[in-house]
Write a structure and sequence with these properties.
The chain is an alpha/beta fold and 320 residues long. The protein is built from ten helices and eleven strands.
């Protein structure tokens, strides 16, 4: 499910090799969710584990310095949009220019003024909040209000890289509303749009865990990105969610109501595999489901080698 920009205390990562400096900054920022690191290496680990909303970064540190840490953050897709404020004793204009060239949003000189720290942190957090709102709006499908294909492709890339590191499985699902052109031709485009909105809402609510994402992939096609390996049961959930809507479809060959066909792939993001290949396989399975009679799912578990067909439940067995 696409999540709104959160309304919780901003998470700030303070990075300095001197604990006393960390304490001064922490005391300047009451009311925030503060995290701490005494080395650039540890800061990068924390940022990858749970991205902060803003980083206060010392420049001069043993080992990796602040400049190198910033370059690393900006090179990594999951951290490149985090605003970074340098906090340093360095006073040369050339150093400040270098920091801005690498992507820092601001520069605070030590010894710090708590009031200045608070003001600049709040300014850059507000700028980030506005950016996040714009990005969230750009990630929505205009008709259905769920994620659009651009957002799905971005999340698929991020989830694929995360799965490569964790070794945990992913399930990808492509869904097509059966004989939707006939629906549009018979009922009209306005009812057709309402049909797509209802299908989108049903899928979005059926797959509402924090790590799930439902998106409109294009036209009458939807896509789901799910954590876990239970592809067959998830396919059954998708079929049931749309079946329960009972949207009349007088021109369907599959029954009295709007139905969907589904292609499902469960896989590990192993070396030598790609998200594009997995999506291509899901697309092939979707067309196999349509050619097999529609109102069903074709599920391929690449981990176990099992291939199954999942059909919709009789109306009497649908959850009430």
């Amino acid at each position: 499910m696409l999540k709104s920009v959160r309304n919780t205390p901003a998470r700030i990562l303070i990075v300095d090799d001197e604990p006393a400096n960390i304490q001064v900054l922490a005391e300047s920022l009451p009311g925030f969710d503060l995290r701490f690191a005494t080395s650039a290496t540890r800061a990068l680990e924390l940022a990858m584990e749970q991205a902060p909303d803003l980083i206060l970064l010392d420049v001069v540190m043993p080992g990796m310095d602040g400049f190198d840490a910033l370059r690393w953050l900006k090179a990594e897709s999951r951290t490149q949009h985090i605003p970074v404020i340098f906090v340093t004793t360095m006073t040369e204009v050339e150093d400040e220019e270098r920091g801005f060239a690498y992507g820092a949003v601001d520069y605070i000189q030590k010894p710090v003024s708590p009031a200045i720290v608070r003001a600049r942190v709040r300014t850059h957090l507000e700028l980030k909040r506005q950016r996040d709102l714009l990005e969230e709006h750009a990630a929505l499908d205009g008709l259905t209000g769920i994620a659009n294909r651009r957002r799905f492709d971005q999340e698929l890339g991020r989830s694929w890289h995360a799965a490569q590191r964790s070794g945990l499985p992913l399930t990808l699902m492509l869904i097509d509303v059966d004989q939707f052109k006939r629906f549009n031709d018979y009922y009209g485009h306005s009812p057709g749009d309402e049909c797509l909105r209802r299908v989108a809402s049903a899928l979005d609510h059926a797959f509402s865990r924090g790590e799930d994402l439902a998106a409109r992939y294009g036209g009458e096609e939807f896509a789901l990105l799910l954590a876990g390996a239970d592809g067959a049961s998830q396919a059954q959930r998708a079929l049931a969610a749309v079946q329960a809507l009972q949207i009349p479809h007088a021109r369907s060959d599959s029954g009295l109501f709007v139905s969907i066909s589904v292609g499902v792939v469960t896989t590990l993001a192993a070396p030598g595999t790609s998200a594009d290949a997995a999506m291509s396989l899901a697309d092939g399975l979707l067309y196999a489901a349509k050619n097999g009679g529609r109102d069903r799912a074709e599920v391929d578990n690449l981990i176990t080698g099992e291939r199954v067909t999942v059909q919709s439940l009789p109306s009497s067995e649908l959850p009430s």
